[in-house]
Design goal:
Helix content is 66%, strand content 8%. It has helices at 2-24, 29-40, 48-55, 59-71, 93-111, 118-134, 140-152, 158-167, and strands spanning 45-47, 75-79, 87-91. It has a three-stranded antiparallel beta sheet. Strand 2 (75-79) and strand 3 (87-91) form a beta hairpin. Helix 2 (29-40) packs across helix 4, helix 2 (29-40) packs across helix 5 (93-111) and helix 3 crosses helix 4. The chain is globular, with a radius of gyration of 17 Å. The two termini are 26 Å apart.
């Protein structure tokens, strides 16, 4: 019970701080996640199905998030150039500015303020990753692949996003 309580209370503390930052930018965390993924990719477009699978958000919720982001001109929908059945979400300049400002604010107000050393952070991430993986909630291998793609600058271009959605069964991250 001590482990559960420690995790739960830590989540509540951090979640409250993150939500305060999100409110300051007119976002929810789900909307921010979509913008952040689009903003980190050199090819700023993702299929809606990729967003659903990767962020583990039901398709109807992705549609609602995309609708709201589109109504605020933070993203736009475009047809996939090679697959008429697929819709892409594309970040706008305004969306990139909002994502960048929210990310900077999150980093300074929440993430960098966590009072743990780098070694402790790495250990905590590893322990929680293992807990999630053992619970079937996290695919370590796929997560490592995505992190490497981001670090190396290899984009999830519309063509790769479409081929990945056809070539791979949905995997959890």
């Amino acid at each position: 019970m001590a482990t559960f309580t420690a995790i739960l209370r830590s989540f509540q503390l951090l979640n409250s701080q993150v939500n305060a930052v999100m409110r300051a930018h007119g976002l929810t965390f789900g909307r921010y996640e979509v913008l952040a993924w689009l903003a980190t990719d050199p090819e700023p477009s993702l299929t809606l199905s990729w967003i659903s699978r990767t962020l583990r958000i039901p398709p109807a919720t992705v549609t609602n998030i995309v609708d709201s982001l589109e109504s605020e001109k933070l993203i736009r929908r475009v047809a996939h150039p090679d697959d008429a059945r697929t819709t892409l979400a594309v970040i706008t300049a305004r969306g990139r500015a909002v994502a960048d400002a929210a990310t900077q604010h999150l980093n300074t107000a929440v993430y960098e303020a966590i009072p743990l050393s780098q070694d402790d952070r790495s250990l905590l991430i590893r322990l929680l990753r293992d807990l999630r993986a053992r619970g079937g909630e996290f695919d370590v291998e796929r997560s490592d692949e995505v992190i490497e793609e981001i670090r190396s600058g290899r984009a999830r271009t519309p063509e790769r996003a479409a081929s990945n959605s056809r070539a791979r069964s949905p995997r959890r991250r």
